[in-house]
Design brief:
Chain lengths: ~350, ~350
DNA sequence: GTGAAAGCGCTAACAT
DNA sequence: ATGTTAGCGCTTTCAC
């Protein structure tokens, strides 16, 4: 009686069935069932057949935890991005999810919110055992602090990782980066060709590898054109709410004919502020943004922008990681994949004359 | 000597240390070490002290898989969203990540891409054992097919879940939804008050619960105003590329004075198409969108829009789930939380007269 | 205060 | 063709 009661409750609660349960059911050993389920040739066709159908009707599903414990692999990768509301990172994440799904990996995603503390905490939680590997882009604060200890700890644990976009020389691993120097160079050159010589450079990510490289490209372009670099035109934006005041000041005290915003939202806000000031874009001021998202596309005038191919970066990074996870046999050199940017000309910049 | 050698190799490869290793090191039993690490009062203060410091220097980290296997809980929740490039869902995900991080849960996120097949496959991969519970918003295709078998299977496994935004009556669980009927009603009423009577209704999510409810709200508002409902004005958009042709046709064959786009991107595209046609917004045509994202905010003219508080929805859903996971003791009734929308008036609609 | 033993669910080398 | 055993890393009851 007790048994029956237990069984029916069991049905309702759908207690997950195990190999042990099936073994008991057939009066065979657990390993026999295991082998049968894994289609081992050791087991007779008849028994296998019976066990399989029973497994199906009982909805047997192998326990993932037990498998992971045994195999020491979880088929899960961890992803840490600074900000998921940023279209570029959303695209990257999309790319990552895509290849992960294709290869039957789960992805645990975490947001650092550009905060060093959150990033470290996240990284701690994400240690080896939870995930087989990590995909990550450094937070701005982390790059400013230059404190990579959390990451290094993981690396020291032997956790494979690939860094993308915001990377660091001090971590040796596979990397996927944008050719940011060239991107900065390209944007500035583009403006110079359109006779813009006084270019305001607004960077919300000044301390990041990405921000620094783009700035260098900018400076190089100026240099090659023989235009002196004016540090006052570089706006290192720590707090987005400062933007308005800064731009107003610049517009009143400097002769400005172009602006570059290093992320999509900043560029669009630049556009808005300039127009509010009554200055026509691109006639008076040309504007270039980064990240080719819907925002750049649909704003008026449509923004000339540097596309970074976020989805492709995500896919590449994920593939690189999975590759390493599965063919750990030849631990070949670390590679750094450089993804070229593309400058998409729209209506926020003047035509060349 | 042997020990030293082993130790140094251990350092290099950083083989993760286990309770067993520590037990051997101190010549005590595994269970003693376990108790010490868990601060059991059974263990003498002295030993505990020694073990703790050793654990720290050796960087002991408990094996997550073993713990999960033992506890039958992974502290991981699964999230399935239709589309992460959509700002609304990105916000929801952000909210979810936030509370998950606060409560020390991992989140495995998956994208269904509005596809029934991908959603089912994902759900299968995400079965009990992998995650402790699920947060999910149904894909459009799934809602059209009305095939919830994958979800029901999970439910039958006893996996706690909470559905958000795109939900179904046929699944009984906690839910967090937007008051979509009211949202549709509100949008239409708003337009009617501004003397718009011929309202084009463009829905890329016609088959979803959300799309249907909003349409009902729309119809009710029309009805109350004594305006006959014209089914030709409802555009059930299956393929986004059709939008242009459809709108052109409508603009030429119907007298239209307002349009509503049921997601952010659609509304913005509507705005663009109308303006390309040379029709002033809002003077000739008023436009209302959904989802209050940067796109709606920065487009020209800025879009009047129905805000759905994505982040809040994500937070609520996550909290509901975690609540259930942690106090499974009183299995109280399922709740459905209804989040009110907010109509944000901007410049794409005329002022009331 | 410490340890032995069983068990979580599964696999695999080694019997029989 | 099937079973035994040991073990993945940890917790926990029960002895000592």
């Amino acid at each position: 009686m007790v048994n029956i009661a237990v069984e029916s409750i069991g049905m309702a609660k759908n207690k997950n069935i195990t190999l042990k349960d099936m073994a008991r059911h057939f009066g065979v050993s657990i390993s026999t069932v295991s082998k049968a389920m894994n289609n081992s040739p050791e087991i007779s066709a008849g028994l296998k057949e019976k066990i399989h159908t029973y497994a199906v009707t009982m909805q047997y599903r192998p326990n993932k935890m037990a498998l992971s414990l045994r195999r020491k692999r979880s088929r899960t990768i961890g992803v840490v991005v600074p900000n998921i509301l940023n279209h570029f990172f959303a695209q990257v994440l999309y790319g990552i999810q895509k290849v992960a799904a294709e290869r039957n990996y789960h992805v645990i995603s975490c947001i650092s919110d550009e905060s060093f503390e959150k990033e470290s905490k996240t990284l701690q939680l994400l240690d080896a055992g939870t995930v087989d590997g990590i995909l990550m882009s450094l937070s701005e604060e982390t790059q400013r602090k230059k404190d990579l200890s959390a990451l290094q700890k993981l690396q020291h644990q032997g956790l494979p990782m690939v860094l993308f976009d915001r990377v660091s020389d001090r971590i040796s691993c596979d990397k996927v980066v944008v050719d940011d120097f060239e991107a900065g160079y390209k944007a500035t050159t583009f403006l110079l060709q359109r006779a813009c010589t006084s270019i305001v450079w607004v960077t919300p990510i000044g301390a990041s590898s990405v921000g620094r490289l783009r700035l260098k490209g900018h400076q190089r372009a100026l240099e090659e054109a023989g235009i002196p670099f004016d540090a006052n035109l570089v706006v290192d934006l720590h707090d987005p709410t400062d933007l308005e005041a800064i731009i107003h000041w610049l517009l009143e005290h400097k002769k400005v004919d172009a602006m570059v915003g290093l992320d999509e939202l900043t560029a669009v806000r630049l556009l808005q502020l300039v127009r509010e000031k009554g200055l026509a874009v691109p006639q008076k001021i040309s504007i270039i943004g980064f990240t080719n998202g819907p925002l750049s596309q649909y704003v008026t005038p449509a923004l000339t922008t540097v596309s970074q191919h976020g989805k492709y970066i995500g896919e590449s990074a994920a593939k690189l990681l999975v590759e390493r996870l599965e063919h750990s046999s030849p631990p070949k050199e670390f590679t750094t994949k450089v993804v070229k940017t593309q400058l998409i000309e729209r209506d926020s910049t003047t035509k060349p004359h």
